[in-house]
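Obj.: predict assembly geometry.
Materials: sequence records (below).
Method: joint structure prediction, all chains together.
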Amino acid sequence: MAIQSWRIRDRYYRLVGSRCASCGAEYFPPVYRCRECGSDKMKDKEMPKTGRIVTYTQLHEPLPGFEAQVPFYLALVELENGARVLTQVVDSPDEAVKTGAKVKATVRRAKVEGESGQIIYGYKFIVA
Amino acid sequence: MARSKAYVASVGFTKVGDHWEKSLLDLAVEAGSSALKGAPKAKPDVLIVGNMFSAVGASQEHLGAMVAGALGLTGIPAFKVEAACASGASAFNVACSLVKSGSVGSALVVGVEKMRDLEPEEASQALAMAESAEYTQFVGASFAALNGLLARYYMESEGVSRDELSSIPVIDHANGVTAEHAQFRKAITADVVSRSSMVADPLRLFDCAPVGDGAAAALILGDPKAGAGKKLVGVLGGAVSTNEFSVYERKDMLDFRATRDAFGSAMSQAGLSLPKLGALEVHDAFSVVGALSLEAMGLSKRGEGCRDAKAGKFDLRSDMPINTFGGLKARGHPVGATGVYQIAEAFLQLTDAAGKNQVDRPDYVATHNIGGVDTTAAVHVFGRAS
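Observations (raw structure tokens):
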């Protein structure tokens, strides 16, 4: 499955989403068609790296590969351009993780895959 | 255009729970054989199996031909339909469409899921396949985590309290006590829900449907005369609708559009208004999902689903009982089978065979099954046929 992550490394490392060439709406994750105007003229676009927490949870029962991280915060972050990212929020005091909190993107170790122990990196956010 | 009607002639199901001694195929055959006992002729014309993750739950695919062969139906066309947790009702929907089109005269639907052979983390991974591998699973978000996000958003936006959120699981567990096929047959209080262990804050253990094994089946006929005098239940409406794939991609996360559209369409096909419904089986995989579904179907106003449940509006002895055999929380949620369990339960209610869970002579019952967080919604409306 490492290839699946490698293929979209720009999206994981630099938050490359998409921008509609017709109406300007921006998305992360990227979309094939604009949800605003229906256009299929979507171009890759790097997202802004700051935003606010729309809502969040603290997860106590992990997926395989995330056992060492629990409990951890997952948040829906609205970036400055209106795009919404589902992300972990790390390295932030518990009391700072709340609805409306300003956050900024960083790159972290996301998970370790397979017998060879390949490390997959990706975006996580911290409270700004 | 629909040329024929569709009728449910018989149903079958296993108890939901820990079937350590039974395989995926054992369960499918038990439910399927039970439904076929009501069959008027040797073989149904087609078999549709509803299942979400046999590939990871039992290292098994190709369920259509496998279940057909095990049921002695070798020769007929057989398929698996998958739509995450809505696989069961989606399979039923496809089967009804085939019958109504006139291409087949009868169809057997078997919903089956084997979940308990998996370790808890593996079961979470299997359920997470309902969501994007690249952007949801990648960040470590389980299916419960997405529902946890949604629950906090719902509670903060609509001013819903922890105590109110607990009210739908309480109804499920109350109804499960007398349901012989239910996984859990124990009444609980809101306090039990509110104090259970944390899964995905604010969702706690008793907000979440359990992991269990089970299979349910229904035999569908196009010609009521083929029912050989048995009590039949008419399929008066059926619709499947889809929403933006992940809940976090939606402009209004609290609008369960797929549920709203599928329910509206199915009720319109049946020519029914809400007050005509005698019972509703609602897909409450998480307490918040039950509430938002009731709101999308118009049983409650926005933000009021939990409060209405708390006020007794959906109790078994109310005008609009929900989850009459315990719903996803107490009857259980063997995911690919759940939609067919709901349909089997509607059949029991409409043939006055629901025993201690019988609601007061309903003329119409609806079932609501979703995959993902309202990503696929499948709704069917049933009525007495004779």
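Conclusions so far: Chain A has a mean pLDDT of 95.
To do: check interface contacts against the pulldown list.
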